[in-house]
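Field reference: "sequence" (input) and "structure" (output). Example, Uso1 protein:
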Amino acid sequence: MVDALLRSLSVGRACAIFDGGLGKFDIAAICHEVRCVNAQVGETFCITLSDAEQRVAGDELHSLGTVAIAKSQAEDGILVLKVWATRDTPPFSKHAEKRPVGEVRIPLRHLSDLCNCMLYFTWVNLESAGLNDSVAHLGYGNPFAANSSESFLQGIMSNPRQLMHPKACISLCRADQLAETDRLLWTKDLPRQDRVKRWGPLLRSQQQHAVMCTAQNLEAAQQQNGSGFLPQRLMHLRAQADEQAQEIELLQEQLQSASRSTTAPTSAEALDVLLNGGGDQWRQKPSMTLLEERTSRQLEEARGLAMQTEAALARRGREAEAHKELELQQSLSAQLRGELQSYEVELSKLGEEANNKIEAANIRIRALRRERDEASRALADRKEGNQKLQVLLQELEDEKSQLAQQKETLMRMVEDLHTCCNEAGLPAADRASIDSISGFKLPG
């Protein structure tokens, strides 16, 4: 419904404020190189990026090697990358004159399932610009929409072998995965998680370039050898066919000359021929016809044999190419298995180290827990001892206060006795003992 409203208002989804961002993401694409495309003198190549339903305007021109951003792409959408030829120079104007060169349609859902929504220096075939739209406009539906995933995968797999087909080398990823805003280049110092995530697209690119190099080497070898790529048997058969053709032409000339010389004989000549047994000359015509037919059959057989030999050689060439590609794939598989084993060994080492660290951490945790429990018990014992000391201190303070009261009472009693002695006139001979008693003080 949102798309229909946007189309009715002639507004792109990138300009919509009510998109909501549900299942939408931005796509960054770079076209590195274009090959096997007819270019006129003074023309340069550029690209535009849009979706198949034209929900996002894709009229901005980008030169080769620069990043193009497609805004708010749906997960099940089809991204259209078009290549144009123009005489304008960067930065390109939207109104610059340009002519379409080709286009490639990329199903985003299939790309996400195939290689994590990434392409890295991958060659794709360029189809005729607007071909799918024209077929759909004629009422035959969109053939690309029905088998977009299969067509896209088949194009990536068969592209390296089609050396003369128009093609483009592109890289594609989510816009938020760009390391830098102006280029897309993966280096070996990336984090391990990013390298694991980008391993699939990188491996696919390496396999595609390996197959393309093999195909180019085979073609270069055939061009250097010229016609020598056919075996000697094929050349011998062709020479034999040419010789038989010359013999047939010679026999046809002899037959024509013989027929001209025997078409209109005089009566005397005919009588002489009959008398001299010249009927054998008249019987030469059927024998010449049989010879011509037999020679024609031999020529046809030779040509058929030559064609069969060519087909067998072509089949052997395809089998040899398939065998080489199989060997290449086997070597790549062996290399990948070796890398997988190394990764498994590294993973086992990391797992062992992690287990050792976890075991050491568990031992340390158990020791800390024991120390914590011992400290808790010691703290409880000290608290209990402090409480006992506080009770004992309180008892001592109470006893001190009682002794102080008893001392005061005794002092008053002594003073009373001294006063009574003085009043009674008793001698003060024992006064020193009383002073010592009155001067006695308890330690504070």
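The beta strands are 24-35, 44-51, 62-63, 67-74, 78-86, 98-107, 119-125, 167-174.
Confidence is low (pLDDT under 50) at residues 11-21, 134-146, 264-285.
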